[in-house]
Amino acid sequence: MRPIVAPPTDASELMQRCRGLAGRTIAEVAEQGRVPVPANLKRHKGFVGNLLERVLGATAASRAEPDFPHLGIEMKTLPVTAQGRVLQSTYVCTAPLDGSMAPTWEASWVCHKLSQVLWMPVVGGPEVPVAERVVGSALLWTPSAEERADLQRDWELLAEIIARGEHGNLDARHGEWLQIRPKGSSSLDLVWALSEEGEWVRDQARGFYLRPRFTRRVLSANYLI
């Protein structure tokens, strides 16, 4: 979906647009964007995020850059219950298995993606129809020194496993705050990867995800829950 408004000129204008969405249902936002709301998200997993990007003026689409590239701001929707419980892990970016992993945390795409994030909570669990879910109060977040250190420690652990080609050990158990999980619509979504022996093999695509405990920690620290 293409944006229906011009990109915001600065962070203040972006947050003003977010305040205008707070308290509105997805149906109301979709009406503004002139798009139909799916009955469920099984085949439309990115619908809510794409809709909010469109009405806020994000321009990155699927390109490897922040959603608001001229502001250096990444946007992440965050499904939560009415009580503030985060419902799922948050996708950050793909995990390269082909030897192209950044050599340091500071050079990594995970670090760049999470340097400044616009969190957009959306209230309503799976039992709530998509159209009736409500946009919450947005948070423009920059990680604290402690949060950055925690994420860096997890990234370095996961990057080391990837560097050794031990893809069979890449599962959701590793990492306290940041984890690696399969990415794609099915286990048939394969990518080229370097094995432990340095040979090219086909393996399941994977991505970096923030655990729900991390995003709840962010919301709690900023008094949103």
Distance between the first and last residues' Cα:
31 Å
User: How are helices and strands ordered from N to C?
Assistant: HHHEEHEEEHEEEEH
Task: Please name the CATH architecture.
Answer: 3-Layer(aba) Sandwich
Low-confidence stretches: none
Helix-and-strand structural type: alpha+beta
Largest sheet: 4 strands, mixed
| Total number of domains | 1
Strand content: 15-25%
Q: Outline, from the CA principal axes? A: globular
CATH class: Alpha Beta
Give me the number of helical elements: 6
CATH superfamily: DNA mismatch repair MutH/Restriction endonuclease, type II
Number of strands: 9
- Helix proportion range: 25-40%
**CATH topology tier name:** ECO RV Endonuclease, Chain A
Rounded Rg? 18 Å
Report mean pLDDT, rounded to a whole number: 90
